[in-house]
Amino acid sequence: MIDENQNDNPDGFSSPACFMHEVDPAYMGLDGSGETVKKWRKGERRRLIDQRARLNAEERDQKSLRIRQNLDQLLPEVNGRTISLYWPFLGEPDLRGWLTAASARGATCLLPVVSEKNKPLTFRSWRIGEELTRGVLNIPVPLHGDERQPDIVIAPVVGFDAHCYRLGFGGGYFDRTLAVLHPKPIVIGVGFDFQQIETIRPQGHDIPMDAIVTDTDIRFRQGCDNLFAWKFEG
């Protein structure tokens, strides 16, 4: 069960919300207040999660496979990389097969862990077959993994927009974490094509993804395609 009362405006974030602060809130159909944005996001979050839940198992598997194939195209060389993925929850794309393949190709794969409420995530190493325990929302997390810092973070989206801003579950954990990780990791959002919306109404704490990978394509934040070409060419 998602806590829909989680804070959509946590303190202490470092990334500006691109050009959205220049847009007239009345033009966007908002009064500009944080509470209005929070209420709007709550409705969009529920709508998008419900839409995702309507996929049948075969559709979800096919779309997840295409996302894995697009990740291979984006990240052709993962040997020596430390990559944070996630355990699929509420119909998210299932990348556990990609995690297994990346581990076999020399990557160190991690799963995120909520160690403390309203604090940045930590990351523990994990391979298929290693022991798991139940974390927040009963999502499995590594029981004995080593704590590591990722140089690539792959995060599921509830929604996303053309500027690669990510709408998450509303707890702010990924944004809070990305704001304090140094050096800054490459950040990739993953989701289904139909989860794109016009805008997530980014706020001051929202940190955009460097790329969004869907079942239909790869979308780069402006200027980030060169970043991937430099870092990940085989």
TrEMBL record:
Superkingdom of origin organism: Bacteria
GO molecular function, one term: ATP binding
Listed SUPFAM superfamilies: NagB/RpiA/CoA transferase-like
Gene3D superfamilies tied to this protein: NagB/RpiA/CoA transferase-like
Entry annotated with the keyword Transferase: no
Keyword annotations from UniProtKB, A to Z: ATP-binding, Ligase, Magnesium, Metal-binding, Nucleotide-binding
Catalytic activity: (6S)-5-formyl-5,6,7,8-tetrahydrofolate + ATP = (6R)-5,10-methenyltetrahydrofolate + ADP + phosphate
Documented EC number(s): 6.3.3.2
InterPro entries from the UniProt entry: FTHF_cligase (IPR002698), FTHF_cligase-like_sf (IPR024185), NagB/RpiA_transferase-like (IPR037171)
Cofactor(s) the protein requires to work: Mg(2+)
One GO process term, biological-process aspect: tetrahydrofolate interconversion
Keyword Ligase assigned: yes
Enzyme class: ligase
Matches recorded under NCBIfam families: MTHFS_bact
PANTHER family given in the database record: 5-FORMYLTETRAHYDROFOLATE CYCLO-LIGASE, ATPASE INHIBITOR/5-FORMYLTETRAHYDROFOLATE CYCLO-LIGASE
Family: Belongs to the 5-formyltetrahydrofolate cyclo-ligase family.
Stated name of the protein: 5-formyltetrahydrofolate cyclo-ligase
Gene source species: Agrobacterium salinitolerans
